[in-house]
Amino acid sequence: MRHSTFLRHVGSRSSSMKRKAAHCAAALVCGASVCAAAAEDTVTTRLVGYQETPATINSAASGEFKATIHVDGTAIDYTVTYQDLSSPPLQSHIHFGRPGLSGGVVLFLCTNLTPPVGVPTPPACPASPATVTGTLTAANVIPLAAQGIDAGAAGFAEILKAIRSDAAYANVHTTLHPGGEIRGRLGHD
Asked: Which domain holds residue 11?
């Protein structure tokens, strides 16, 4: 293991342990009801064109994706924001794919195209600048047999594992960049 990889691995373990200790301290001070709220897992990422693949995009656009995973692992509350897009937004989703690689769509955040079949209709993507919020559950999972993502609760658990393992990303697609204009990896640093 390279030294920098080792330090990043140790650092992420250390910060995870510190987070858990802080959550326990908060539970002791404030009571058990706070423990559940404190134990929710939140993932935030910046969305930029430099993260897009297979072609990196030089874009003035930017955004942020924030996901709060419920303690019981049955839902994700999300907020996606974007501004300065080069053209109207087409859609935004979570993909199953590691950094530097493209992956299939597993959860829709918003769309202005034909909604996916078999899942609840996602909200429309407003014109930039915009903020979209919602809640995702097992009902929203788009299975990807070729990538081993199942439908329903099993698939939702697989996506949560991917998010926690840096194997998922969020992005926003536009008319000038239908493959994606801005993107950010999901996971923990």
From this structure: 1-39
